[in-house]
Structures are given as structure tokens and as C-alpha cells.
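Record pair follows.
FIRST:
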Amino acid sequence: MANKKFSDFTNQPSSANTFLVGYDGATNVRIPVTDSLFQGGVNKYVIELDGSLSNVTFSTAGGKTFIDVTHNLNNSDIVPQIYLNDGGGDEIYYTTIYIQTPNTLRIESAQGMASGTFKLLILY
């Protein structure tokens, strides 16, 4: 199997005989897909950025809009994204997002962001 490119492998569902192969620094290893290493997943948290919610606070200063969100995920390893709240969910709105604590973040935008117009998706 030497000198095989990743693209040479076929894409197929795993079976009882499927393993991930690698090197642990001393020996070659094979890990079955049933190993707990592969049992994790990605969780998501979605909230409408609506100022009437108790955990969403809008403010403005210096021509910028700030939105503070308390998500209580107790996790700083998150991937936040802002989407238009039009049901499509496919148009990403680019802002600056600061992860302030494991439970809060701040969204900063140089453009106005009206309450209820956007939603926040957090992958963790």
C-alpha cells in the first residue's frame, strides 16, 4: 500500500472489518471505527438575534452595532456564524465575533443589525 494517494481510496460505508490506520510514534496502529474516538459528534445551538430575548442584548456605539449573547454552552471551543433570519439559512453575514467567556460572546458590526433580522448558529 505504499505511495498511495488519498484520492486513490474508494468512498464506502464502514463494515466490521473497517479500520483507521496510523502511526503512534513507535508502531503502526489500526483503530476500529467502533472505537470511542469516532463516537463524538458536532452539536449546534441556534438562536434568533432578537433583543426581546433575555440572553440577547443590543447596543450601539461609535456607529457600530454590538450584540451580546449568553449561550451557556460552557465551552470556548465554538464556531459561531451569523445568518439572515429569512428561513433560507444559506447567506452568511460576516461580522466580528469575540468569544468573551465560555458562556458569552459579542458580535460587532459596522453595519446596522436590526433585532430579529439575523440568527446565530454555534457549532461546538
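SECOND:
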Amino acid sequence: MSKHSGLLISSILKYIYINDRILRMKILIMGLPGSGKTTLASKLASSLDCAWFNGDVVRKLCGHHDFSPESRDIQAMRMRTYADFETELKKIVICDFVCPTNKAREIFDADLIIWMNTIAAGRYDDTNLLFEKPDKYDIRIKNFDYDISEITKIIKKNVNYK
């Protein structure tokens, strides 16, 4: 495991290859409310020129305001559906949402998981109680002084841009 100013890279990244080229990538940025998911997603989406879906925006558009464990699984499936549509178009897509359980992360089925592990507790007690530290992740951000160019490089070196 190598360390880079506030970020840990921990596992071999998985991608979809055809003729040794990555044709698409689904990136999940997950963590507690207030951990910086949307800030990171905004910066990455700009630097990668990719599709981006924010969980709060998608939830609001769908009129879905229930935060039960079952509804969180539904949100993971909804975010997966949006992301899979974009990846079928051979695009990189970023989705940022809490995705609080390992089950929800399995439902979403990311190619790359970035865990925003920047805070000990979020602003919602029910989410704090439900949140499970991820079993698997590719990048862990431990504080807010991360280097966006470092994260972008990790992703870009594994994607063939035309």
C-alpha cells in the first residue's frame, strides 16, 4: 500500500478491457454526509470531462425522500442504473452518494471506489448508525488536503482517452 498526502491506494483497480483498452469506468465516491464527496466529485468530473451524478440531486429529481435501509438499497440501484447507461455509451461516470452499507456498494457495483474517510461522524445519527466501513475500496481519502491531480492521474493512467 502506498501513501500520498491524505490518500491511500489499496488494491488493484478493476476495469472493463477490450483490446487492452479501458472503454468505460464507473466511479463511486462514498462516505458520510459532510465528508467532501460532492466537492471531490465536482473537481474530478471537471478534470476527467465525464458524466457525474450526485445522489442528493438524483434523489430529489425522483421525489424519493425516505432514508430507510431498504430505500438506501433502492437509491444504490437507481444510481447504478444512471451510471450503467453512461458506461454503455463508453464513458467514465462518477456517482457520489453516501452508499452506507456493503450491500448498497455491491448493488452499485463500481469499477473504482473512493472512500471519503475524512470525518468520524456525519450530521445524521441514523446514517452514522447504519454506515459500514467499506470492505473494499481503491482509494481512501483521509483528510481534506488531498491532491486532486494525484487522484486524477491514478484514474487517467488506467483510461485510454481519445
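COMMENT: Strands lie at 2-4, 7-9, 16-18, 21-31, 51-54, 92-96, 112-116, 139-141.
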